[in-house]
Amino acid sequence: MAFWWPLLVLAAAYALCRLLLVLIPPTVPSIEVDASDVLEDANQTKEDGFIYIPRKGRTAQTDKVQCYEPATMKYLGYFPALTPDEVKEHVVQARKAQKIWAKSSFKQRRQFLRILLKYILEHQDLICEISSRDTGKTMVDASLGEIMTTCEKITWLLDEGEKWLKPEYRSCGRSMLHKRAKVEFYPLGVIGAIVSWNYPFHNVFNPMLAAIFSGNAAVIKVSEHASWSGCFYLRIIQAALAAVGAPDNLVHIITGFAGTGQALVSSVDKIIFVGSPGVGRMIMQRASETLIPVTLELGGKDSFIVCEDVDLPSVVQVAVRAALQSSGQNCAGAERFYVHKDIYSTFVSQVVKIVKSISVGPPLSGRYDMGAICMIEHSEKLQNLVNDAIDKGAEIAGRGSFGNLGEDAVDQFFPPTVLVNVNHTMKIMQEEAFGPILPIMKFSSDEEVVKLGNDSKYGLGCAVFSGNQKRAIKIASQLHCGVAAINDFASSYMCQSLPFGGVKDSGFGRFAGVEGLRACCLVKAVVEDRWWPYVKTMIPKPIQYPVSENGFEFQELLVETLYGLSVWDRLRSLVNLLKMISEQSSPANTRKKSR
Fold this sequence. Notes:
single chain
């Protein structure tokens, strides 16, 4: 007892100190970010504000990126469409700053994250309102998709980021027992990102956080459909960087169209792209010219599978949320719903009841469940998908209702729509809709639903619901996709220790998690002497130049000694090997060689 007592006291003291460190909050300074020009009607009155009327057809690529609220069509202003030379200058500035930031400590990087987190927590309403105005989503959707995901990423990096960027020691193998093997992680330089409009806050912060924490600079091209919000969010990042003494120009937001993005790909050390498969292929082609690594997060057509043994009311609520998550204001949602035939009618009726209660309208002008479609003419594409399904035998089982839309923005809204009697000949079951449509299809067996789930050119994610968890896991394991949620939807993305990405036309590479963080690094394999300077590498005499007559015989015995199938085989070879070495070193053999 006398021996253990001091150890117990030390352990208790250590535990108490750890507890106090958790309870005592770190000192985190506040930052000031000027938002006077982005608040509602801050720079225009009701009288002098005007409605923006975009051109029909393909977006005209001029020297300006025009910005407007999709829910009201109010004009927000414009940003320059940067030329290739201007993009290259941004990258040059970022590269200079990165050389300084690469030497920063993890303590400094964590403080940057804490300052960001503090600002986000204290300004949730401002961040969500700006996202809502620029993309048409509701405040609740903005909180779920923008705030929670970003805060989760920040806290994961605070807790584990340094751990996964420190040198990682690996096994050295049988032939290198006298060595120490490790993997080291160094910043790549300037990380480029071309991001989509659907999560304007998180899509900027997601690549930026990984890049900056791993010692890189970041240059991010925001979508032409969400430039107004992206340029404001840059102010938050710049203020937080300045507060920790980071060099100027470490993070850049650039605006423009395809030419701007192509110039970025040609200038950076890695590119992360979030967008369509077609543009993703062009990104790869341009990246091949400089042979930089590419991460592509492309389209999705996620399956939402419901077995007959589920708790139906709770699953129905999740299903509707998952469908609206795939609306024109969001993504990463479910787009194909497969329900077991035994509960199909009940499931449909409960979904229709919820959908009919959903109101659609300008998200900041009333209490609406769903906002506007962000992209011009996207509601027309959605209606064409519905019409194609109806022409092939599907039926509309129910739709949501419109609120007071205003005569200037009617085309920017689409009601949540439930389709039944669908099949895989319909475009709605094969093409990415990116809209609030619930096509619900029956299945009879687990084998059938696995086949249906894999019948897609996409492979991003899936969600499988069953009262038998082992059954749900088995179904999910057979679906060819990058992420899976068991008895839940999209929960894998909220676990920021996990990688995110897909296969097939959904892209390749991963962001988020350990894999995403290390993907921003130069991964270097290092081998060093374990007992330096006492044990050093020496070339065995039989294979020193000039190689001896029995050099190959020595190599054979060495291979058998190291890799023989049994211990006895290895010992036998070792004895013969030592005998050969001793004979090689004997005085008689030396004299014979000298003659």
